[in-house]
Design brief:
The complex is a heterodimer of chains A (118) and B (335). Chain A has one domain: Methane Monooxygenase Hydroxylase, Chain G, domain 1 (Up-down Bundle). Chain A is built from three helices and no strands. Chain B is mainly alpha-helical. In chain B, strand 1 and strand 2 form a beta hairpin. In chain B, helix 1 packs across helix 9. Chain B is globular and about 60 Å long. The chains are: A mainly alpha (118), B mainly alpha (335). Chains A and B meet through helix 1, helix 2 and helix 3 of A and helix 1, helix 2, helix 3, helix 4 and helix 5 of B.
Chain lengths: 118, 335
């Protein structure tokens, strides 16, 4: 007997095959007559200056860092939430402590200006 | 003989569900254009077939026959792959959502879901996170400044709004006590979870608007400043894949909302007990209601400025989701 994970595996294969099938069919049917002007990088009527693969602002990176901290928090909270009916009040107090520490973290990031978009 | 049916049933089920999602996504493009037009006192598409219902088909044929243009500065392999990743990730998300009860078909018990995982909700969160890869890689590999900006915005907003989304889901888990989506639907036999979690529903709905880059949070693809953002360099079928990925994502997200907050196929039980297919119809009706909400929001709200949008997530929505979770936990402990 196959388990549910196998069914999902089959579904994943079909789902991945589908877009690439569409790309393949289009590749067979469509015309292809490139010329340098057509394949130029899009810009508003001008020639592009330089690559787009350059350094960009660090704010995105800071958001990613804070995100990792709080996402790991969510991972810790899921098992707690599932077992919540069984573990009772003591676990509730512990989670409040945990959330309290994280709130301090958020307040710290807030005060440091990490959440401000200049 | 038996392993043959064991093998073919999941394959057929997978193909049927993928096709249904595809048609759903395609018709969502039609539905949105039609509804948006009505909101603005226009007609919308009405040339291809009665009420323009053949419009998605015409669009698909057009996209397939469009000329292939691969700009010469792109990172070619990633550039070609990204729309596919985007679309596949959306389809895969649907795998754990139950869209009906178990039915008797040709003497076999067939559950109307792909897989009944114990960790269904975690699966949803994990795969929903994959969707951002398609957008980020596509925007980065295009080697276009607009695309890069769009991709960066998309990443920042998708990871930011994943946090309130996860916290809203945690409140659901605290109430239902399980991650299995079938159990969560069973839990809602009496009352849908939106009754206990109105705030959770609201937070979750706002978060999925941001996750699927929908107006008023469509900052990665703002037409007037970024010229479609991460999709700028995409044309033909590749653009069509991105486009349908977005609309299929709306359908899948609506299915998630319907399952988690609106009682899935089960509520109200009086109706879903009539016939197995009544449950499916109920589920579809709820999905359509949420999809209408999507379009309604788009037709009503102007786009939010990016810094305000990020501030709203981190300084308002996340603390709110925290408080919602804490209050839910306390109330469950008291009862």
């Amino acid at each position: 007997m196959l388990s549910d994970y196998h069914f999902i595996g089959v579904f994943v294969l079909v789902a991945i095959a589908f877009p690439f099938l569409a790309l393949g069919i289009a590749w067979l049917l469509r015309p292809k007559k490139p010329n340098p002007v057509k394949t130029a990088i899009y810009e508003c009527g001008l020639e592009t200056i330089g690559d787009a693969w350059v350094r960009f602002r660090a704010q995105y990176y800071i958001y990613a860092l804070i995100f990792v901290a709080f996402d790991v928090e969510a991972v810790f909270l899921f098992p707690w939430a599932v077992a919540y009916h069984r573990v009772g009040l003591w676990a509730l107090a512990e989670v409040f402590l945990f959330l309290g520490i994280l709130t301090i973290g958020l307040v710290y990031a807030w005060r440091k200006g990490a959440l401000r978009w200049q | 003989m038996d392993w043959v049916t064991d093998f073919w049933i999941p394959v057929i089920k997978a193909i049927v569900v993928v096709l249904a999602l595809l048609v759903g996504g395609a018709y969502m493009t039609w539905g949105e254009r039609k509804l948006c037009a009505r909101f603005q006192v226009r007609y919308g598409p009405n040339r291809a077939g009665p009420f323009g219902i053949l419009q998605p088909l015409a669009d698909a044929v057009k996209a397939i026959f469009k000329e292939e243009i691969v700009p010469h500065h792109v990172d070619k392999a990633i550039y070609l792959m990204s729309p596919g990743i985007s679309f596949a990730a959306v389809l895969i998300t649907f795998a754990v959502i139950p869209f009906g009860p178990q039915i008797d078909l040709l003497g076999r018990q067939i559950g109307l879901w792909i897989g009944d995982l114990q960790v269904g909700l975690l699966y949803l969160l994990a795969i929903a996170g994959l969707g951002s890869y398609g957008i980020v890689l596509g925007g980065w590999s295009s080697n276009n400044k607009y695309s890069l900006l769009g991709a960066l915005r998309a990443t920042a907003q998708m990871i930011s709004y994943e946090l309130p989304m996860g916290l809203a889901l945690l409140s659901v888990v605290v109430l239902a006590g399980t991650l299995n989506l079938n159990r969560i639907v069973d839990f809602q036999g009496q009352w849908p979870l939106i009754v206990w979690q109105p705030l959770g529903f609201l937070i979750f709905f706002i978060a999925i608007l941001a996750e699927s880059n929908r107006s008023p949070f469509d900052l990665p693809e703002t037409e007037n400043e970024l010229i479609s953002g991460f999709m700028t360099e995409y044309g033909g079928i590749k653009f069509a894949l991105y486009f349908i990925a977005e609309y299929t994502a709306m359908v899948v997200n609506s299915a998630i909302v319907a399952t988690l907050f609106l009682g899935g196929w089960k509520w109200p039980a009086v109706l879903s007990n009539l016939h197995p297919l009544a449950g499916v119809a109920l589920f579809l009706a709820k999905v359509l209601v949420v999809l209408f909400l999507y379009v309604w929001v788009r037709a009503s709200c102007p786009r939010v400025r990016y810094d305000k949008f990020m501030r709203f997530c981190w300084k308002f929505l996340m603390p709110l989701a925290w408080v919602n979770l804490a209050v839910t936990a306390v109330i469950v402990a008291l009862i």
